[in-house]
Amino acid sequence: MHIIKVDAIDSTNTFLRNLNREKKLEKPVCVLAFEQLAGKGQMGTVWQSNPGENLTCSVFMPIEKVALKDQFYISIATSLAVYDALQNMMIPKLSIKWPNDILSDRLKICGILIENIVKNGSLEGVIIGVGLNVNQSVFIDLPQAGSIRQILGQPVDIEEVLHGFLNALEHRFSLLSPLYFEKLKEEYETLLFRKDKPSTFVDAKGDSFVGIIQAITNQGKLQVMLEDAIISTFDLKEIRLLY
After folding, report:
1. Boundaries of each BPL/LPL catalytic domain copy (predicted)?
2. Number of structural domains, the chain?
3. Among the four 21, 39, 58, 148, which has the fewest Cβ within 10 Å?
């Protein structure tokens, strides 16, 4: 995969989006930044990262066999790729916090932001932004954040982490076709954080309630068992898991 390295940049996702507008990318491309000045997280949040200490990158991947209605399988494949790469590094107690945060035990070590490229109602490609905490050891006002260095007790080569992730990503994307969707979904559900355990959630109104994560729909919505064994389905903006 072609890798573009930059020093300081506002957002690697924005850089790749602009590059695609200019050149209409057809093959996988990765942009690796030493420092992101305005890295993006889910739902408009800002990703905090010390310069040169973490893996901050974005990857353009062409899409051929995924319909727009099945776009959540891209998130599944990406989450599993990060999981694969970290598992190969012997990171313990890995799980996926819906929809695509990667945890080790209860510490968030990776966030993912996916932006679709759609033309004439068809999915042509995706830009995958990844913020993976590698060597950062201090997280101000982020008690649930952690890094690979903290977990392994030693510094790690960021480029080795990058290549491990890219290899895993290309493998997982090679399985992105309807033939493998159910298998990918089952593997993802098995790794869901707090699955089958009573957990506390907060809804869009700020009210808390207890439920048990059961599964996800094909569109990526979370299915939670509430009182009286009622299964309710929630979208990303409708629910937040407390932990």
Report:
1. 1-177
2. 2
3. 21
Q: Range with the lowest mean pLDDT among 10-24, 69-83, 94-108? A: 10-24
Q: Is the pTM of this model over 0.90?
A: yes
90: left (phi over 0), alpha (psi -120 to 50) or beta: left
**Structural domain for 224, as ranges:** 198-242
Tokens of 219: 């569109």
CATH number at residue 219: 2.30.30.100
Residue 243, pLDDT score: 83
- Say if CB 151 and CB 43 are below 8 A apart: no
Q: What per-residue string of b and e applies to 201-232 under the rule 16 or more CB within 10 Å gives b?
A: beeeeeeeeebbbbbbeeebbbbbbeeeeeee
